[in-house]
Amino acid sequence: MAETALDAWLLLILFGGAFLDALPGPCLFILGEPFFLMAGHLLHETGSVWPAISVLVGALLADQTGFWIGQRAATPLKRLVWARSGRRRAYRRARQGLQSRLILFVAVSRLLGPVAWITPTLAGSLDVSWLRFSLGSVLGVVIGVGQFILYGWLLAAGVALAGGDLGHWVQAHALSLLIGANLLGLAGIWLWRHVSASGRVTRSGRPYR
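RE: above sequence
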């Protein structure tokens, strides 16, 4: 009974990680890749497809939620975008892509990191076809999330071929590993932004403050 409850909690954590990874706001602090890799590892170790289903459904629902938020908050979103010239240029390019190649644009955005965070909300604010958006979302999630599930499965398979017993240890420390991986990823993002910001200069040759 306790083992079943633990399995349910683990599936819920995987679902929540995949959902928050693409949800506007929490996406800045939650990285989905550790959850996707974990799902692939569990798929290999247990033979159950539920870990993979959990992250796939979580990612899809996050896209749908982002689309809904965009529909409800179109005006404030556009005011935020038009506040800066750089945002306006990026907005025009994204708008053109969504209006001309909606399915492809949404699918590819899932492979482009931060672009995936804003695309559903932007699509909703532009009142594009929900059905075509959803088709692009499904395609992007299957490819974008599916590849990390595959990586996790291959990693577990490689350890098994090497004669290791990593599976039970990973399952016992799953939550700690997920938290640690997210903290490490956030530290890497912060360091990259800090280094990038220190290297940028203005037209006068002076660094940005």
